[in-house]
């Protein structure tokens, strides 16, 4: 694994000041030139149908050619909608190359240059570029240009056979570069993921040494084979994209500089197939920029004069949340002499989970916890609404950012929020425990987070947010970072951990706080909002503990002391990681929430309690959780077989 030596890239904003999220989809752009929403919808539909290359679709080509020749118009479009403009330029370039490229690509050169500039020299991150709903990756699909080189009379032939770019016969290492190029070609021709074919090359010791050199001495590192090196880094980025954010961002940082230096034909036309490799960096991930809540509702404190005026100017979900706060969704509680409002909230969607939702809600009700807000899509809403006294909110976007949008919306409405994952089981009413926790610190915590049993890491299955200006500011910064860095694999927890750092506050009477190690997120982090927030970890030993599914999870002590138990349903992980996770028991929901086993209700209840007891015994790790300073568990990536199945319309390698 590569260690990044410090690079001084800290921004120094004192507080979070943005009032809306970047409109990458261009849903709210008011343009006189292009109907961005319509263009995006047509583009997405064409890409999904994938009947022909996008730059042969007449509608798209004619829109692109309307602007292509006017630099001013293009610049205006870019300022309105960067990704839409990049997409249009790809269409313009593709259709130009198809028509004229082989013998004379000069007419396409200006467009290609513009495209390269917008993609790689402006402020669009690689991850945004590759995960957006705009089918930018699909429009890269110009494999025919690689075939131009086979015609010895064409200009491409000259370029593609330039020994310098091919890195042929120039040094002792040439053979290796030629081999890599062959492997890439073979993989692309046979429509395989490139990574599987080049694994041995990519993980070779010599290559790892070079990468280390580069990351440690970026100034003095000069690659022997420039385009081959860019190809290598792209492949490495694609491996780590699925596994390890810190290493991925290290590569991305280096790649950004290299990509900004490439000419369009080096990128689209060289025998290193760089545009194909870039398209494979993240095959299975599409960013959802829609959050139902409006950016302004999350990023700013609302000014509520009356709920009536709020309703007029709010998104449906924000109004519904506000109404729920005024109704049964929030409950008053007293902490340190202050009366405040408290809500428990969960978001859930998907058939596998919905069948357990009634029992989940009823379990809270049986503990006299009615201030539980259930957020979810239409199906969730229907199941939830059938339960008496349930508080149900329809939140249609299946966006993992809801982990932070929901507490932020609630905090903005002046409510403290305890956000729960769905794969948990409450053994007792958490509120009294929460109050005594909050009161046991000399400074009242703004944020409480569950922790991991066997290492010194946080776990965001359970998190309590006290609505304070500094916590709202902190979560806004975190949410915006996640929005701008659409990276898969549980990065929402990793980012939280990295943003929080390693200094939880101390209880009044305690030998020391729970020891915390921060996860590695990226080689650079935005400066956190100051002053930092007061946060602490909920007892990971027994009160807020977990099943022993992972090497580092489990619980210890007396089962009577468990407040909320996290039983780790593996599919949550699967959804975020591009590979199979070995989770032993997928029947957890059945153990905890199956209240209808077809026998007498009491027999069923006895059976359920018995199974829960048995489960707890099997997952108990001892009498007491040992102190640990072990760093956070992260998935090993060099040994993983990464051959995901591309989804329809994504990651297609060549025209059928
Ligand atoms: C892009 O970044 C530059 C330099 O950091 C900055 O000056 C500029 O305002 C940014 N542009 C946009 C559109 O964010
Ligand atoms: C609960 O258990 C019974 C008996 O094992 C089973 O038939 C039923 O499908 C389970 N309920 C759910 C919701 O899976
Ligand atoms: C705590 O550490 C002791 C000594 O290393 C070990 O025997 C015991 O199993 C540990 N307990 C737990 C709960 O891990």
Instruction: Just name the CATH architecture of the largest domain.
Output: Alpha-Beta Complex
Into which percent range does the helicity of residues fall? 40-55%
Look at the structure and give the mean pLDDT: 85
Count the domains. 2
Tell me the span between the first and last alpha carbons.
Answer: 39 Å
Q: Mind describing the biggest β-sheet?
A: 8 strands, mixed
Q: From the alpha carbons, calculate the radius of gyration and give it in angstroms.
A: 27 Å
Can you walk me through this structure?
Residues 1-19 form the signal peptide. It is globular, with a radius of gyration of 27 Å. The chain folds into two domains: 2-287, no CATH class; 308-623, Spore Coat Polysaccharide Biosynthesis Protein SpsA, Chain A, CATH 3.90.550.10. The protein has 656 residues and is α/β, with parallel strands linked by helices. Strand 7 and strand 8 form a beta hairpin. Helix 5 runs antiparallel to helix 15 (245-261), helix 11 runs antiparallel to helix 12 and helix 24 (402-412) runs antiparallel to helix 26 (469-484). It starts with 35 loop residues before the first helix and ends in a 37-residue tail after the last helix. Helices cover 46% and strands 8% of the residues. 45% of the residues are buried. It binds 2-acetamido-2-deoxy-beta-D-glucopyranose (3 copies). One 2-acetamido-2-deoxy-beta-D-glucopyranose (NAG) binds at residues 355, 590, 594, 596-598. One 2-acetamido-2-deoxy-beta-D-glucopyranose is lined by residues 556, 621-622, 625-626.
Keywords:
656 residues; alpha/beta; Spore Coat Polysaccharide Biosynthesis Protein SpsA, Chain A; eight-stranded mixed beta sheet; three-stranded mixed beta sheet; 11 strands; globular; disordered N terminus; disordered C terminus; binds 2-acetamido-2-deoxy-beta-D-glucopyranose
